[in-house]
Design goal:
The complex is a heterodimer of chains A (about 300) and B (about 325). Chain A is an alpha/beta fold and about 300 residues long. Chain A has helices spanning about 1-10, 20-25, 65-75, 90-95, 115-120, 125-130, 145-160, 175-190, 205-220, 230-235, 255-260, 265; strands spanning about 25-35, 45-50, 55-60, 80-85, 100-105, 190-195, 225-230, 240-245, 245-250, 270, 295. In chain A, the strands form three sheets. A six-stranded mixed beta sheet of chain A has the order 5-6-7-3-8-9, with helices on both faces. In chain A, strands 2-1-4 form a three-stranded antiparallel beta sheet, with helices on both faces. Chain A has a two-stranded antiparallel ribbon with strand order 10-11. In chain A, β6 (about 190-195), α9 and β7 (about 225-230) form a beta-alpha-beta unit. The longest helix of chain A has 16 residues, at about 205-220. Mean pLDDT of chain A is about 80; it is low at about 1-20 and about 270-295. Chain B has 16 helices and no strands. Chain B is mainly alpha-helical and about 325 residues long. Chain B has one domain: ABC transporter involved in vitamin B12 uptake, BtuC, CATH 1.10.3470. In chain B, α4 packs antiparallel against α12 and α5 (about 90-110) runs parallel beside α7. The chains are: A alpha/beta (about 300), B mainly alpha (about 325). Chains A and B meet through α4, β5 and α6 of A and α10, α11 and α14 of B.
């Protein structure tokens, strides 16, 4: 218990709520570890207490196990050891209740798939449709109840893509594509949103829109967890940061975590300086080099 | 031997021993025969609208049965081909259709329903592909190549022991003109099962082909969907064994879907176009095979390939001609 509570207090300082915390935190994990095919473990001793209503960024260098942790959180990969509860229950139960939404990485989607923006966003409602009692659950989505159509329309409006509803997804720009999938998560009305690299291929305007929406969700008490290698954006938008490299290095407020001296030693990857122009309030602007990259030294 | 009559009797043979079940099955069989008569009557009403020279071949009873069988297989293969194309399962469809052969032969030897044997070897082969892929550095396409040629060869060896080469050729290339009522009934049953499953679980299949991880995160059982789709593929392949044959069913499971892929911008529309392509090539191919006295399976697939070629050049958005024009416009602009 002493070890666990020390980890707990790192993430959520000053909270000593005891066992009921399992129910009150959004994500509760203890000593998770994972490995592939008996190789050396990719993740060890991961313990998390992610509270409701926060925007959490999981950051770390390449090969730090970010994707593995993300796959564990969406239930794709079983952790080798440890225990993970989401809203106090197993992932599978929460998935069946549609409380977990997922925004995929750009590469995971086949952009040639013949599907319109409307149908992608409506995909967020499929889970709700499938748990409708009676024979209605078998109806194709075009005959779905009005509540599902309203949710789809609301989500498309929220990301400002309603006029694109009938476009094929392949015809959209990178930022719009990401917004479509965010709309799908909105339509699903989940309590936990998991975003995989939400900033890859996204233009500045979409980025601002996406994060203002995510902020709104957080104020509504929903929890947003994103995995990113983009330190600058993570620092700019997240309310808490979890820095991992095979295990949790440190957690806490973005400024505290990412301004640390040891930070540069952990990262074998230079910080991206793409954010400089869009963030005039940055306290320590990083000089831009010719390649757009800057070593953190 | 592996004729159409034996197909149903073998399908039902384990059940026929009990009296009450036999009467129930008999009742279903009679019902099915009546249903087929009705469907053929409706088909003939439509065909009679055409000029006499076109109607003529379809005055034969065997042509009417062949027409219905080919249309059913074409339509169902059309629907499934969308998933095969979108899921990039072309080679898997090929693998399953070849892997079915030893199962069919063994089931025939042991007196089991043909479908059971076909499904067992089909599943074993797809599992074997997974095992090779996971445990060695061999990639999926090579693993499929190894497994399906192996089981196909096994099937040929077994069949060459128990049947003449004519029967082998019928299984490989189909003989839709020789289809009898029991086989037609089996095809109808398989078509109804497939269409009903896809219709009722459209949402699941749709999301599974587009974004399987999302399907999983909203609590769908993706393993069940995966094997369900594979089961539907196997059912369809077995039921089209006699129409276009094992080898050409692969074409019917890929080409209509590929044609529709070039033309459609939503899954429902893609399924409609693919179904149309499947049925159209079945009807035209059958007619041409009668007129020119050529292999029916071959001509059905050729018509289907023709349709793809047309779409390849003329598709409004993806077609070669549109792309060519667009390139020239962008150059001149």
């Amino acid at each position: 218990m002493t070890k666990q509570s020390s980890v707990k207090s790192q993430i959520n300082p000053g909270s000593q709520r005891g066992d009921s915390q399992q129910q009150t935190t959004a994500i509760w994990a203890r000593n998770l570890s994972a490995s592939y095919d008996g190789d050396a473990p990719v993740l060890t001793n991961i313990s998390l207490d992610i509270p409701h209503g926060e925007l959490i960024a999981i950051v770390g260098p390449n090969g730090a196990g970010k994707s593995t942790l993300f796959n564990i959180l969406i239930g794709l990969k079983q952790p080798k050891t440890g225990k993970l509860l989401i809203f106090g229950e197993s992932i599978q139960k929460q998935c069946k209740k549609n409380r977990i939404a997922y925004v995929p990485q750009h590469e995971q989607i086949d952009w040639d798939y013949p599907i319109s923006v409307w149908n992608v966003v409506q995909g967020g409602r499929y889970g709700h449709m499938s748990i409708t009692p009676g024979l209605r659950r078998f109806l194709p989505p075009c005959w779905a109840a009005p509540i599902h159509k309203d949710a789809t329309k609301y989500a498309l409006d929220a990301v400002g893509l309603f006029e694109y509803a009938n476009r094929p997804i392949g015809a959209l720009s990178g930022g719009q594509k990401k917004r479509v999938f965010l709309a799908r998560a909105l339509a699903q009305d989940a309590d936990l949103l998991l975003l995989d690299e939400p900033l890859v291929g996204v233009d500045g305007k979409s980025e601002v829109l996406i994060f203002s929406l995510l902020d709104q969700l957080c104020t509504q008490g929903k929890t947003v967890v994103m995995v990113t290698h983009d330190m600058a954006s993570a620092k700019q938008y997240a309310s808490q940061i979890i820095l991992i490299n095979k295990t949790i290095i440190r957690t806490g407020h973005p400024e505290a975590v990412l301004n640390n001296e040891e930070f540069s030693y952990i990262l074998d990857r230079p910080i991206r300086s793409r954010q400089i122009e869009s963030d005039p309030n940055r306290t320590h602007p990083l000089p831009k080099t010719a390649g757009g990259y800057q070593h953190a030294d | 031997m592996l004729t159409s009559d034996s197909l149903l009797s073998h399908l039902l043979s384990p059940l026929v021993t009990r009296g009450s079940i036999t009467t129930v099955l008999d009742w279903f069989y009679q019902l099915g025969v009546k249903l087929i008569d009705q469907i053929i009557a409706v088909l003939m009403l439509i065909i009679n609208l055409f000029p006499e020279s076109i109607v003529e071949p379809f005055l034969f009873a065997f042509m009417q049965r062949a027409l219905l069988t080919a249309m059913l297989v074409g339509g169902v293969c059309g629907i499934l081909s969308c998933f095969v194309v979108l899921k990039r399962w072309s080679l898997l469809g090929d693998a399953i259709s070849h892997a079915v052969l030893p199962g069919v032969a063994l089931a025939y030897l042991l007196g089991w329903p043909l479908f059971v044997g076909a499904f067992i070897t089909g599943t074993l082969t797809s599992l074997g592909i997974g095992v090779i892929e996971r445990n060695t550095r061999i990639k999926e396409d090579t693993a499929m190549g190894i497994m399906f040629t192996g089981s196909f060869a096994l099937g040929i060896v077994i069949i060459s022991q128990i049947a003449t080469s004519t029967h082998l050729i019928h299984i490989l290339f189909g003989n839709v003109l020789g289809v009898r009522i029991p086989a037609l009934l089996l095809t109808l049953l398989c078509s109804v099962i497939t269409v009903a499953t896809i219709g009722l679980y459209y949402k699941e299949f749709h999301l599974y082909t587009f974004d399987p991880i999302q399907a999983k995160t909203i609590g769908m059982n993706t393993t069940l969907i995966h094997y369900g789709l594979m089961l539907l593929l196997t059912i369809t392949i077995v039921s089209s064994l006699e129409t276009v044959g094992i080898i050409l069913v692969v074409a019917m499971l890929i080409t209509p879907g590929a044609t529709a892929y070039l033309l459609a911008n939503s899954l429902t529309r893609m399924m409609m176009i693919a179904t149309f392509c499947g049925i159209f090539s079945a009807v035209i191919g059958l007619y041409l095979s009668f007129i020119y006295n050529v292999s029916s399976g071959g001509s059905i697939v050729l018509v289907s390939t023709m349709l793809f070629t047309l779409a390849f050049f003329l598709a409004p958005d993806q077609g070669l001609i549109t792309k060519f024009r667009r390139n020239r416009q962008s150059k001149s602009a």
